[in-house]
């Protein structure tokens, strides 16, 4: 089933925290074990049933993204590329993507976030198309993130960006399901002291009118960001451990497209040939042999 939602992957930014790694290549194109990092957020949107996706990149990185991803037709999806002239905050994505969205509800995922967990597709598909839905994840260092402040009955009171003293251990992940009013709301966001259009300010406009839901991801989920050299390595090792232990791929757009019925057996076979003698190519060939959609 395809969603009426459209998808946004925010893959801009300067990547300075990962210098010198990112001096010549976008952070979101770095390898995360055996695939480019961008595959992981892309497959999150595909698992949500979304087939129209905009990829927001810096002007000088866009050609590389097009080379890695193509137009999406190999996966039965449609990719649109949008330039982010300067990184002015996450809420800016909704202004840049306004024409692409054309009033549709959307799911935005950050290009350096990795999500994994049984039940993730169902959780995303359950997000209503009206209002906003974000996901809270229990972390040990909440002061690094936007943090959810709950009242006694579990209702969300506020979301606080990088609080010195965190009101809870639940960080807001880089996955946002917002309705068609998001670009209009983003226009009303004033730049923060650091000069950015903060996503937290945009979410507050939903919160104030009682239309923001925070779904908490339980212990069976993994949410990894890759903002430091150590967390990049940790995420790669996480993927490697899962894949080697289970013999199943994490973040394979080819497998997901085939499993959703968006591409045929013949299409998958062509993709498997493209990857030749790699483990990834062998895995795709194995899917065709097992024939388990």
UniProtKB/TrEMBL annotation:
Catalytic activity: dTTP + alpha-D-glucose 1-phosphate + H(+) = dTDP-alpha-D-glucose + diphosphate
Superkingdom of this protein's organism: Bacteria
Annotated Nucleotidyl transferase domain residues: 6-239
One function term, GO molecular function aspect: metal ion binding
NCBIfam families referenced in this protein's UniProt entry, alphabetically: rmlA
Record family assignment: Belongs to the glucose-1-phosphate thymidylyltransferase family.
Function: Catalyzes the formation of dTDP-glucose, from dTTP and glucose 1-phosphate, as well as its pyrophosphorolysis.
Protein name per its UniProtKB record: Glucose-1-phosphate thymidylyltransferase
Organism from which the protein derives: Falsigemmobacter intermedius
């Amino acid at each position: 089933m395809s969603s009426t939602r459209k998808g946004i992957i925010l893959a801009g930014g300067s990547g300075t925290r990962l210098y010198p790694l990112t001096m010549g290549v976008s952070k979101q194109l770095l390898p995360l074990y055996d695939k480019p990092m961008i595959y992981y957020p892309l497959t999150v949107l595909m698992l949500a049933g979304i087939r129209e996706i905009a990829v927001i990149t810096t002007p000088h990185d866009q050609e590389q993204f097009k080379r890695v991803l193509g137009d999406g037709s190999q996966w039965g999806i449609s990719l649109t590329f949008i330039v982010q002239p300067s990184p002015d905050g996450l809420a800016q994505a909704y202004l840049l993507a306004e024409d692409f969205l054309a009033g549709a509800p959307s799911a935005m995922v950050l290009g350096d976030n990795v999500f994994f967990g049984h039940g993730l597709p169902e959780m995303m598909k359950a997000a209503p198309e009206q209002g906003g839905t974000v996901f809270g994840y229990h972390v040990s260092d909440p002061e690094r993130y936007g943090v959810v402040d709950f009242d006694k009955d579990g209702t969300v009171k506020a979301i606080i960006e990088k609080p010195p003293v965190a009101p809870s251990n639940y960080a807001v992940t880089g996955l946002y399901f917002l309705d068609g009013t998001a670009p209009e709301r983003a226009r009303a966001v004033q730049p923060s002291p650091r000069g950015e259009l903060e996503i937290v300010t945009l979410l507050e406009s939903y919160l104030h009118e009682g239309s923001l839901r925070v779904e908490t991801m339980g212990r069976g989920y993994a949410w990894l960001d890759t903002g430091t050299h150590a967390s990049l390595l940790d995420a790669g090792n996480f993927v490697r451990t899962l894949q080697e232990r289970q013999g199943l791929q994490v973040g394979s757009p080819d497998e997901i497209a085939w499993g959703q019925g968006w591409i045929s057996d013949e299409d998958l076979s062509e993709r498997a040939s493209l990857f030749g003698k790699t483990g990834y190519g062998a895995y795709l060939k194995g899917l065709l042999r097992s024939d388990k959609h």
